[in-house]
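Quick one: structure tokens for this chain, please?
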Amino acid sequence: MKLSYPIAAPDSLAQVQAFCGEYETAFEWISAQGYAGVELLVRDPQSFSVERADSLLKKWNLKVAAIGTSPMQIQDHLFLLHPDEENRAEAMARCRSLIELASYYQVPALIGKYRGQIGDAPGCRKEDQLLLFQEICDLGRKAGIRILVEPQNQTSLNNLNTIRETLEWIERIGEDNLGILADIYHMGITETSIEESLLAAKSQIGLIHMADSDRMVPGLGNLPVRRILQILEEMAYEGFISIEIRQWPDSRTAAALSAYNLRYLAGWQ
């Protein structure tokens, strides 16, 4: 298993659950804590400098784990499902660019809250979501990447809340490059058993978002993090475990403590 930490792109001004405003130094710090990868959170993929990122990745011996969308919805309030047609169009345009960027790094493109809410308005219905993801998966297939959708709890989104619901939805869509981003924090709210749900979805999981209850550093809350790590090992999960937590008291401390705790709980030290 490989650890990853999220870094917000330089043009992101939103406070997301990642290193924010420390783009250059974040790579150095993450590498020093023993992380193998970074999850890049991108606001505008077309303005993202791959040359700058590649230089930092090479310098600090890091890989890209995935490309995420958090700054798009938090800073620019864009959603793939939205009552406003212009909002949907811009969200989809950035999604296309996101897939191109993910293709460059040959990593998954992540879609969590960015998918938006199901509603009665045109462009927001369940049928719209189905057609939308078929289009997105087609783009991803041509780009040679997977699209990972993140089940989230009902206070965040009104669709695809549980692992089971998402697995059934993926089967209905029938796209072989559509998988699951399993977020342990959300699973602690939505799943009767995190462990059983991980096992049920093991063939579909392309990335793990690790956090403890209340988005705390893993090991400081009440979720069974040690057992979750054991399950991932039993599953022979070979992907990244990316840390999505509250940046408290700051990103450097959160990143360092997360890496230490996970290694200890997994028996790596």
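The two ends are 14 Å apart (CA to CA).
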